[in-house]
Amino acid sequence: MSLRALLLLGLLMVPVVALPGCGRRHTEGDRPVVRIGAKAFPESEILGEMLRLLATEAGADAEDLQNLGDTGKVWNALLVGQIDAYCEYTGTLTQQVLANEDVDTLGKLRRALARRGLRMSRSLGYNNSYGLGMRRKRAEALHIRSISDLREHPELKVRLSAPFLDRPDGWGALRKFYDLPQDTRDGMEHALAYEGLSAGTLDVTDVYTTDAAILQRDLVVLADDRHFFPSYEAIILYRADLDRRAPHVVDALLRLEGTISEPAMIDMNARFVVEKKSVRQVAADFLRQSMKMSVEVREETLPQHLLRWTWQHLLLVTASLVLAILVAIPLGIAAARRPRLGYFLLAAIGIVQTIPALALLVLLLVLMRRIGPLPAIAALFLYSLLPIVRNTYTGLHDIALPLRESAEALGLKPWPRLYLIELPLASRAILAGIKTAAVINVGYATLGGLIGAGGYGEPIMNGVTRNDYRLILEGAVPAVVMALLVQALFDGIERLVVPKGLRLRMSA
Fold first, then answer.
1. How far, in Å, are 50, 316, 337, 416, 468 from residue 312 at the CA level?
2. Coil, strand, or helix at residue 219?
3. Are 301 and 314 in contact (CB under 8 A)?
4. Would you say 382 and 352 are in contact if contact means Cβ atoms under 8 Å apart?
């Protein structure tokens, strides 16, 4: 297989010339494009869908960017203009996002946001604070009604969600404020903490006061008797330029102010999480009932979901793999030609491979200051380098010396020798490295669901946050099938591009 064939293989694998959403303009004709974000938990998804429906009703081309991760990711996306609006909580802004600034009043908070080109709505009508929850039967048996009562029961097992451990208004400050004897340093996924409460493997965890799990699992929220937790009023954050670009859309979004009560939000969360209603249906039903809007909801079927996720997953895998082929093969050639350089190249690429995938993804997210497919593609590209570079190096390095000497005896210069003899002889090893990188990428690409990159990671992450194993399987099973198909595809490509004589020799 020649170098031209290898490069052509990479180029033929590109299913599109551009990623969806890249370079989209802010307006399409007379319809402004409005990007609505949401964090990766049910309540934020419901509120985000309400904003999308309101923006669409106002005549905008509304893009719904759900499951963008935690507060930091969505906040940064708003700052850099990747999204135009999302729903936040005042306590999160004052205690986490702007904790180092003097924003103890709404006026100061609005001014701090204005300096960043942002604006906020008035309260949507309810407060969703943090709290500590226990199973009702367990709390009643121990006569625990408030957080202060925990001081009398040091034996209780406490496990908390990772974000709550790290917040300024989280566990560390709460434990010190109430002088609690319990301690924990290990965070866990919120949904799994609820499972632990139900199974009896832990006694106390953090809860959101509007969480559907409170009703679903018969939990009791311990009274914050010393008033530690600040107010967490739900509000809309949006970019100031949206008010100039699409004022009618902002007016539509602000119609949500003061319309959602705490019981209504709990009910919507329960319909979404417990009754398994779609987020579109839950949001549309509320707007119909409370705001008398005529909202049409078109639900995607499972095949439509799978088609969209498959397309997005293929984009992540293919784009990163093509880039890796174009970069890694020349690096492997350079490593084989210059052993000292090759040692440092392989060592450096090997170090990248040892970085945990999630850590690398978050690091790239911070460096690139954007969510979506690009950080995911960059991470997958870096993980694809080692198998291709190493196999290219090994394939070229292991060519028998008599063959090299024969090529030199024919008077071939280095480039024709590489192009006509060495790369064809190393083609089987090179293709094996590409196949390994492709299969690895199919699995690692599911992590893109953490930052709104789409693909099979989207249902997997949704399933984790909602504790819905059906959703997890909807992403995990197709990912396994895709990995098997990719392996079969490259086995077929090998029969096409690897010289027959070389294949027969290797199989002998």
1. 24, 6, 38, 40, 22
2. strand
3. no
4. yes
168, amino acid identity: P
CA distance 167 to 173: 9
Alpha-carbon span 372 to 70, nearest angstrom? 13
Q: Return the amino acid letter for 388.
A: I
Q: If you count them, how many residues does the chain have?
A: 508
Phi (first) and psi of residue 480, to 5 degrees = -65, -45
Q: Give the integer Cα–Cα distance in Å for 143 and 149.
A: 8
Q: Tokens representing 53?
A: 């429906």
* 475, containing H or E segment: helix 469-497
Where is average pLDDT lowest: 138-152, 300-314, 450-464?
Answer: 450-464
Residue 293 neighbours by CB under 8 Å, 6+ apart: 53, 57, 287
Q: What angle is formed at CA 196 by the lines to CA 475 and CA 186, rounded to 5 degrees?
A: 90
- Residue among 232, 234, 43, 42 at smallest CA distance from 125: 234
Nearest to 5 by CA among 403, 427, 501: 427
Residue pair 278/299 in contact by the 8 Å Cβ criterion = yes
Kindly give the pairing relationship between strand 234-239 and strand 219-221.
unpaired
Give the tens place of pLDDT for each residue, 170-209: 898 999 999 999 988 878 877 788 888 888 889 999 998 8
pTM for this structure?
0.74
- What are 384-393's pLDDT values in tens digits? 999 999 999 8
CA atoms within 13 A on the CB side of 156: 26
75: nearest Cα among 90, 62, 86, 59: 86
| DSSP-based three-state secondary structure for 85 | strand
Q: How far is CA 396 from the centre of its chain?
A: 38
What b/e sequence results for 331-342 when a residue is b if at least 16 CB atoms lie within 10 Å of its CB, and e otherwise? Answer: bbbebbeeeeeb
| Main-chain phi, psi angles of 54, to 5 degrees | -65, -40
How many C-beta atoms surround the C-beta of residue 258 within 10 A? Answer: 13
CB atoms within 10 A of CB 138: 16
How far apart CA 461 and CA 447 sit, in angstroms, is 8
Please give the Cα distance from 475 to 478 (Å, whole number).
6
- Phi, psi for 256 (deg, rounded to 5): -80, -15
Which spans in 121-210 are helix H?
A: 136-141, 162-166, 171-178, 190-199
> Please, are residues 390 and 433 in contact by the beta-carbon 8 Å criterion?
yes
In order of 109, 391, 396, 409, 446, the CA distances from 402 in angstroms are 75, 21, 14, 10, 46
Between the two ends of the chain, the Cα-to-Cα distance in Å is 20
**Tokens 């194993």 appear where?**
469
Angle at 503 between CA 12 and CA 318, to 5 degrees: 20
